[in-house]
Task: structure prediction
Amino acid sequence: MARLRADELRGMGIGELKERLRELRAELARERATVAAGASTENPMRIRELKRAIARVLTVIREEQIKEQRSKKKGKK
Result:
């Protein structure tokens, strides 16, 4: 899987982001289980990449939530 970029993520909808988040978390769980079982991974840095990708997705989701809240607040005035 290619590295996720924040600008690519911002182009996705919330539903797509949540689906991507679910996939990344599942992949991270598989990698951690592999390491816990004592097997070696193909790419030891993959766990770090997955954690960072999850953080990026969560950041973009939160940005969208804040944007929606601000637009609702402006509408009340």
